[in-house]
Amino acid sequence: MFWKLGNRGSTGFLLVYRPPRCTKDSLPELLQVVADMLLETPSLVVLGDFNIHADTTLQGAARDFVESMASMGLSLNKFGPTHSHGHALDLVFTSMDVGDLTLTKSETKEVPWSDHFLVQLDFSATLPLCREVGPIRMVRPRYLMDPIGFQRVVGDALSQVDGLSADSLVARWNAELTRAIDCLAPKRPLRLHGARTAPWFSPELRVMKQSLRRLERRWRKTHSESDRTRVRAQRRAYQVAMAMAKRAFFAASIASAENSSRRLFQVVRNLSEPPVPPGPGRDPKISCNAFAKFFADKIAQIQKEVDSTVGAGPGRESARVLSGPVTWDQFQSVTSEDVDRLLGKVKPTTCLLDPCPSWLIKASREGLGDGLCGVVNASLCEGAFPDPLKEAVIKPLLKKTSLDPANLANYRPVSNLPFLGKVIERVVAEQLQARLEETDHLDPFQSGFRSHHGTETALVALVDDLRRARDKGESCFLVLLDLSAAFDTIDHNILLDRLEGLGAGGTVIQWFRSFLLGRVQKVVVGDECSDPWALTCGVPQGSVLSPMLFNIYMKPLGEIIRGFGLGVHQYADDTQLYLSFKSEPVKAVKALCECLEAVGGWMAANRLRLNPDKTEVLFLGDRERVGVGDSLVLNGVTVPLKDQVRSLGVILDSQLSMEAQVNSVSRAAVYQLHLVRRLRPYLPANCLARVVHALVISRLDYCNALYVGLPLKVTRKLQLIQNAAARLVTGSGRRDHITPVLRDLHWLPVRFRARFKVLVLTFKALNGLGPVYLKERLHPHHSARTLRSSAEGLLAVPSLREVRLQGTRQRAFSVVAPALWNALPLDVKEINNYLIFRRHLKAALFREVFNM
Questions:
Q1: CB–CB of 818/778 below 8 Å?
Q2: Do 738 and 769 belong to one domain?
Q3: Tell me, what CATH number does 39's domain have?
Q4: Is the alpha carbon torsion for 546, 550, 551, 552 positive or negative?
Q5: Buried/exposed code over 72-104 (b: 16+ C-beta within 10 A; e: otherwise)
Q6: Distances (CA, A) of 383 to 166, 506, 807
Q7: CB-count burial class (<10 Å; 0-12, 13-18, 19+) for 661
Q8: Residue 204 has pLDDT above 80, yes or no
């Protein structure tokens, strides 16, 4: 039995009875019913007689059932025995996410007519908050901002660039664009309100609603049948118009997100739930200068602590790099076509320091291209980054809504930079990237902000090494290093030395020096602004160049770690080092400590702070057999050994079972399904499918190469989510068989999606579209004599002598990737184009799944 309660049916109740002699197959069937019901309501309560002894240690199918319920965001509430024999057979599962109804109290009472107890549940209800009235601010009406009219007002004022410095050109740029936007769309006072719960409510709908209310008042006064007919007709017309307005507004909002999953998530979140005001607005007692002082003092404190740790020791040698010959002394000038092409890659984010919205500049680039090109070339030729673009605006945002808004440490500084500066940076970044690729300068195991690299490639290689080591009977330490404000504490002189080691000189090194030095920033909250303060270290947050410069800065770290015999993978400032050993744990711990001491010394010498309190260690192996305790002492700090850690968004456990990761993904995907379900009545079919792909399926696919070969009981949890998403997109009923639904959508099941990802990574590695550290794990198959299969592009699969455990053969990338590749049809393996390969690969797997 299923029914809804709460505000507009926001909480659903599913009453279950499972007879005592049901087979264990009934539990997976019940899970599918629960997954389907999750689409009916954002908050679900599942209760009834399950005939599962929850008071004892759950085993087998019962344990898998409870874990699967938890993976869908439904937690088991325990409140003692519910049966006369002392067992808990009547269970209550409630949503972990708070809805309109929340379970506050539960108790049981014996009754004379049944051997089961009466279970009484108390729920508390929450009511939506009223919209608050905000202050009056000066804003520019967007509907007046016409790109054609904007170009006409600007005219030829920016076309003359000869003889002017970069600073002068930027000042003229800001002055002319400010004059044009003031002429086109002058500021007007507007009272800001809280988040609108119905932004689609148009003036036409307001008129229809007023007319409906007038007719209702007249009918209540006259009680005539003709007036009642008019009310019913007007109500139907109003409801139809309102539904059409919602549908049009939601479709337009989703279409505005283009191909950005992040933007699409924000749109869906704003449409389904009113946005919460940012943190600082909640506590007006905190001033902008207080924020500014806190952020500045935090960096100063880190520098002070680093100064106190610099001294003699391993890795504490001078951080300066001997300069090599200058091979890159000037930038290449750009044309208007180059700027136009790069302008399309810059995100249209507007800073408070910009003279006009950045989207208007991108829409008007045909008329502004010459002036923009002149500013860029002047900056490159002079070897100077314009001073007016060195100021940043900081907006403090609360890290989590559950944190105390009065505590300054709970805020994250979000930096906004002028749009024109980002365009110049984009030009330099393209030439710097070409230089890095030409010289192969970066660490081969650095995957952050590099083409053909990513978090998934780094994790696939890391987990592959750990699985192969465990297959050999070795134990492993995995250490996740934590840096405090790494981007904000980079030493400018050391970074310039590293750039000179890259061969930079002349106007190139002058430009980078100008880019780093002389920067200031200020905190802005609402209409308040702090005093600006100078930045003496760090690279600007939100900059296009900052990630690339950080990778150059961190290059020596990987060499130091590998010098101690440890493996390492990096993604920007996230560093994962690991050590495998078969015996002598004391010696392994000593080597690990020596390596971390050298890492700490290098960090201190390079003005970075390693945070030992947040460093996490995962041990993979039998602690009792190896003789490893519950913690390690690393550099005088006791670090507990954890059962699971989160690395680059993926939870790794000590058994590499991926169960914790699958449970976390399932809960997050269920929450996204709730958001999408609220919008389903107002979304066209194409928009609905796009939203589900971006918010739900993308979560199932993130790093799903790690799911290959997992047991069915683990992947079933993700399959339930995919089935629910498919029913949501197609509108299929709960009793419809899911296989035809997936086939019509052309969706591969979860297990085959994992195989698809592994084969895609294999193709990229073999064709120069992936990192070298993945390609090195794949080797061509060589036969002792010439066979017909020699020309089939086969890969060598490690033998049983090399890989003993079946789990490793099914899950380790270096083993399962060659096996899956060899099983592909020859015509698919011979394809060289990436997009064509993906299409043919999916078709081949699709035929295998659905027997087509």
A1: yes
A2: no
A3: 3.60.10.10
A4: positive
A5: bbbebbebebbbeeeebbbbbbbbeeebbbeee
A6: 10, 8, 57
A7: buried
A8: yes
Is position 800 within any domain?
yes
CB 598 within 8 A of CB 564: yes
Taking CA 646 as the corner, what is the angle to CA 644 and CA 652, rounded to the nearest 5 degrees?
50
Q: Which of 125, 141, 165 is the last residue of a domain?
A: 125
How distant, in Å, are the alpha carbons of 274, 530, 723 from that of 540?
Answer: 32, 18, 44
581-632 pLDDT, tens digit per residue, is 988 888 888 888 889 889 988 998 999 988 877 889 999 988 776 767 777 7
Instruction: List residues bridging with 14 in a β-sheet.
Output: 2, 46
Q: CA torsion 211→214→218→220, rounded to 10°?
A: 110
Q: What is the pLDDT of residues 321-358, one digit of tens each?
A: 555 688 889 999 999 899 888 888 888 888 999 999 99
Is residue 665 domain-shared with residue 705, that is, in the same domain?
yes
Same domain, 783 and 706: no
Residue 259 lies in a domain: no
Residue 742 included in any domain: yes
Which secondary structure element, helix H or strand E, spans residue 49, and what is its range?
strand 43-49
What are the contacts of 803-810 at 24+ separation with CB within 8 A?
A: 803/468, 803/471, 804/471, 805/470, 805/471, 807/467, 807/709, 808/467, 808/468, 808/470, 808/471, 810/708, 810/709
**DSSP assignment, residue 6?**
S
Residue-level length of the chain:
852
**92, 125, 158: which is the final residue of a domain?**
125
**Average pLDDT value for the chain:** 85
- Is 51 found in the same domain as 21? yes
**141, 157, 356, 572 from 183: Cα distances, Å:** 12, 15, 12, 45
How far is it, in rounded angstroms, from Cα 404 to Cα 285? 13
Hey, how many other C-beta atoms are within 10 angstroms of the C-beta on 796?
A: 12
Can you list the pairs that 502-506 forms with residues at least 24 positions away whose Cβ atoms lie under 8 Å?
Answer: 502/328, 502/435, 502/436, 502/439, 502/441, 502/552, 503/324, 503/325, 503/326, 503/327, 503/328, 503/435, 503/439, 504/326, 504/328, 504/329, 505/326, 505/327, 505/328, 505/329, 506/326, 506/329, 506/330, 506/383
Which runs of E-coded beta strand occur in 275-390?
none
- Rounded CA gap, 701 and 454, in Å? 14
Q: What is the DSSP string of 539-606?
A: --TT-SSHHHHHHHHTHHHHHHHHHTT-EEEEETTEEEEEEEESS-HHHHHHHHHHHHHHHHHHHHHT
- Domain containing 834 equals 752-850
687, amino acid identity: C
For 403, phi and psi rounded to 5 degrees? -80, 160
Its pTM stands at 0.83
pLDDT digits (tens, 9 = 90+) for 785-833: 665 655 678 999 998 888 888 888 899 999 999 999 999 999 999 999 9
pLDDT in tens, 294-312: 999 999 988 888 887 765 4
Q: Are 28 and 63 in contact (CB under 8 A)?
A: no
C-alpha gyration radius of the chain: 31
Regarding whether 740 and 803 lie in a shared domain, the answer is no
Residue 29: how many CA atoms within 13 Å on its side-chain side? 9
Q: Which helix (H) or strand (E) holds 239?
A: helix 225-256
Hey, what are 709's tokens? 């070969």
Asked whether residue 16 falls in the same domain as residue 90, the answer is yes
Q: How far apart are CA 35 and CA 138, in angstroms?
A: 48
Q: At what angle do helices 546-553 and 555-563 cross, to 10 degrees?
A: 30
Q: Does residue 193 lie within any of the structural domains?
A: no
Pair (69, 8) in one structural domain: yes
- How far is Cα 631 from Cα 653, in angstroms, rounded to an integer? 16
**CB within 8 Å of 385: residues ≥ 6 apart:** 166, 379, 421, 424, 511, 514, 515
Q: How many separate domains does the chain show? A: 3
Q: Read off the tokens for 542.
A: 């939100």
The residues pairing with 633 across neighbouring beta strands, listed in sequence order, are 638
Contacts of 123 (CB under 8 A, 6+ apart): 11, 101, 102, 103, 104
For residues 770 and 739, membership in a common domain is answered with: no
